[in-house]
Amino acid sequence: MNERISIEEIIRIYKIDHSFLDQLIDLELLHPETDNRIRYIIYEELPHLERFANWHYDLDINLPGIEIIHRLLNQLEDLKNQNRRLLQNVSKFENWEDAEI
């Protein structure tokens, strides 16, 4: 089982609005687990929550903006990974060509 923290505890610790957290969940930016009618966020998602809260409360970015920024950052990360794989394939191909000569 993943380490997790209850949503009520998150609200208390991070001092964020319950409605803000609910909206993040509705937009599927966070994925709560439910156990005995208590909703939890897994620890792995806490960095995302912290980032979203900073964007919203410190930078005054609204929820649609947070959703767009998050999606673009994920796309950027995917492109970086894809580029890394392509460069590895090119490197393998170049090494293979050198072996053929």
Give a quick rundown of the structure:
The protein is mainly alpha-helical and about 100 residues long. It has four helices and three strands, in the order βααββαα. Strands 1-3-2 form a three-stranded antiparallel sheet.
Description:
The protein has 101 residues and is mainly α. It has a single domain, classed as Multidrug-efflux Transporter Regulator, Chain: A, Domain 2, CATH 1.10.1660. The chain is 67% helix and 11% strand. Strands 1-3-2 form a 3-stranded antiparallel β-sheet. A hairpin with a 2-residue loop joins strand 2 and strand 3. The chain is elongated, with a radius of gyration of 20 Å. The chain starts with a strand and ends with a helix.
List keywords for this structure.
single chain, 101 residues, mainly alpha, Multidrug-efflux Transporter Regulator, Chain: A, Domain 2, three-stranded antiparallel β-sheet, 11% strand
